[in-house]
Write a structure and sequence with these properties.
The complex is a heterodimer of chains A (294) and B (280). Chain A is an all-alpha fold. Chain A has helices at 2-41, 57-64, 66-99, 104-112, 119-129, 135-144, 154-182, 186-194, 199-210, 212-226, 231-236, 248-257, 262-287, and strands spanning 43-44, 52-53. Chain A is built from 13 helices and 2 strands. In chain A, strands 1-2 form a two-stranded antiparallel ribbon. Chain B is an all-alpha fold and 280 residues long. Chain B is built from 14 helices and no strands. Classes of the chains: A mainly alpha (294), B mainly alpha (280).
């Protein structure tokens, strides 16, 4: 009995000792910034002069600033372009991957290698490929007689960024879907065949419902990604044309480190994070289903 | 006869399938191909032809020597990127293994709390902390130094989570046997448990390394001197200032991308495992 309690104490000590570096780290680089963030959001501060407590003024200013609504609209637009595009293509690609018997490794690599491209380099390459006299427009002009103002038209610019991000993440998401497809029992398809179901019904009645956990996961990944877009607009458009590609992160960066409005940037960070959280929560509530594989 | 026809039809279909898949994969590789070929082209052919008339190293010579004289030390940037990414990766793997082991294998009164806490932590997007983290680094007097790029990333919830999940499946018998032999805790972790979880080490290491290599906004904020900047930031600044030197910029992009592509091709097995593991 006594031995047991000392052993228990010993285990407790070991556990806390092993985790202590992490706990200290989290306290300094996660907990402390968290408190700072909240405090900052209620202050007016330029990083230099004494901080001034201004209550919720930052948030009032934020919501009454049309620029904030531009950011929200742009992020919303990006999600509307990116999420359906990447969902449809990556599910299709995942189905194609499972059908491929040969060249599996080559096909997987050629779609996945996009995902390891570095943000700065791929932004440079795409800004060249999509430039007004770049290879893509040259091809369009020679074959169809028109060009597309990819990054120069405010209505196109966000869509072009959505294409780039789709290029980068398609293979990655397709592999997640492939893992999801492999969890669907073959017997279900065989049973459906016996019932004379065609391909279409099989896909919509079996594949899609049972893929629900992967779809939820991709949606969560894609939404959080949409709120973290920075490198592409920073490198290619600088937020323009006509603020068409301004994103939350770009605005936080400019407000904090170019305009030195620390408090305002902090409150914008809080609102952006809450919005991303709320949309993820709502999405899960709407589309998440209990999946029974039997 | 009939079945032969059917077979023919099927093989026609499968040929079509592979043709489409190959065409698509070429489209997907095209940005890489274009970048790579253009970096070896004579400068006046970058926009005009896909296949260069002859290959030249002029762009590489420019980015590695002339740009250096202009104050953009690309070789140093490459070394900085390697240094920062390696240090962060080693640190993340080391500490994640320790904490993951504590959560998975030590029955102590904080293990559940810790596990729930790291999951809770992962809910918060890291961009939230940019401004306050900058202030902490500034208050420590670390702005424009290597630690500014390294310290905030030395540990992370995701790595701990991955180790905690995978170490659960290490059989307790191994650990008990080592304890019987009088081995101490750290010896057990590093000589018994970790060799059994090589793939977790590879997965956490790989994704951490690639994440830090690609990290752009943070070093852009905290670094001032070009001699200490990672490659991503030097390349970005050079592109913003001398955008018309497109050949050298693409050569810089190749230098910035190729290490990741090579690492990916070598460790692709773990990359795929990591994707299906984070799915569970």
């Amino acid at each position: 009995m006594i031995r047991k309690t000392t052993l228990k104490k010993h285990e407790n000590l070991k556990g806390w000792l092993l985790s202590s570096p992490y706990l200290i780290f989290i306290l300094v680089f996660w907990g402390y910034p968290f408190v700072w963030l909240v405090v900052l959001s209620f202050t007016k501060w330029n990083f230099m002069t004494p901080k001034k407590f201004i209550g919720i003024e930052n948030f009032v200013k934020l919501f009454s600033n049309p620029f904030f609504w531009t950011l929200t609209w742009n992020t919303f637009k990006f999600m509307c372009y990116f999420i359906p595009m990447v969902l449809v293509f990556s599910i299709t690609l995942a189905v194609a991957f499972t059908k491929a018997k040969k060249f599996k490794a080559f096909l997987a690599i050629s779609f996945l290698v996009a995902n390891v491209s570095s943000g700065v380099a791929y932004s440079i390459v795409f800004s060249q490929l999509f430039s007004s006299n770049g290879p893509l427009n040259r091809f369009l002009y020679n074959s169809f007689g028109f060009i597309i103002p990819w990054f120069t038209n405010p209505n196109w610019a966000m869509f072009s960024i959505a294409i780039m991000v789709t290029w980068k993440f398609l293979g990655y998401y397709a592999l997640i879907f492939m893992a999801g497809l492999q969890m669907i029992p073959k017997e279900l398809y065989e049973a459906a065949d016996l019932d004379g179901a065609n391909k279409r019904t099989r896909f919509f009645k079996i594949t899609l419902p049972l893929l629900n956990p992967s779809i939820v996961m991709i949606m969560v990944l894609a939404i959080s990604l949409s709120f973290g877009i920075f490198t592409e607009p920073y490198m290619i458009t600088g937020g323009g044309p006509l603020n068409g590609t301004q994103t939350f992160l770009l605005a936080i960066y400019t407000d904090a480190f170019e305009r030195y409005r620390a408090g305002y940037a902090a409150s914008l960070s809080i609102i952006a994070a809450s919005m991303s959280f709320a949309i993820i929560y709502a999405t899960r509530k709407i589309i998440e289903r209990e999946v029974d594989f039997s | 006869m009939k079945s032969l026809e059917k077979e023919k039809k099927i093989s026609m279909k499968s040929v079509m399938f592979y043709v489409i898949m190959f065409a698509l994969s070429i489209v997907w590789l095209y940005p890489y191909i274009w970048m790579f070929l253009s970096s070896f082209k004579p400068w006046d052919e970058i926009y005009t032809t896909l296949i260069p008339s002859h290959l030249t190293l002029k762009s590489y010579a420019f980015i590695l020597t002339v740009a250096n004289q202009m104050g953009y030390p690309f070789i140093l940037g490459l070394l900085n990127s390697i240094f920062v990414s390696v240090v962060v990766t080693v640190s993340v793997v080391f500490f994640s293994a320790l904490v993951g082991y504590a959560i998975a294998k030590i029955k102590f009164n904080g293990s559940n709390f810790l596990f729930n806490f790291i999951i809770y932590q992962m809910l918060f997007p890291s961009f939230m902390f940019t401004v306050p983290l900058y202030l902490i680094i500034r208050n420590f007097g670390l702005l424009d130094s290597y630690p500014a790029m390294i310290v905030p990333y030395m540990m992370g919830a995701w790595g701990v989570f991955m180790f905690a999940q995978s170490l659960k499946s290490v059989p307790n018998a191994y650990i008990e046997a080592a304890k019987m032999d009088g081995a101490n805790l750290l010896w057990i972790i590093f000589n018994v448990v970790l060799p059994l979880s090589r793939s977790t080490i590879a997965i956490v290491g790989l994704f951490t390394f690639m994440g830090i290599w690609d990290n752009f906004m943070w070093p852009l904020i905290v670094m001032q001197s070009y001699s200490k900047m990672p490659l991503a930031v030097i390349l970005a600044v050079f592109d913003k200032t001398y955008g018309w030197y497109i050949g050298p910029i693409l050569a810089g992009s190749v230098i910035q991308t190729i290490p990741m592509v090579i690492i990916f091709i070598i460790f692709r097995k773990y990359f795929l495992q990591g994707i299906s593991m984070s799915f569970k």
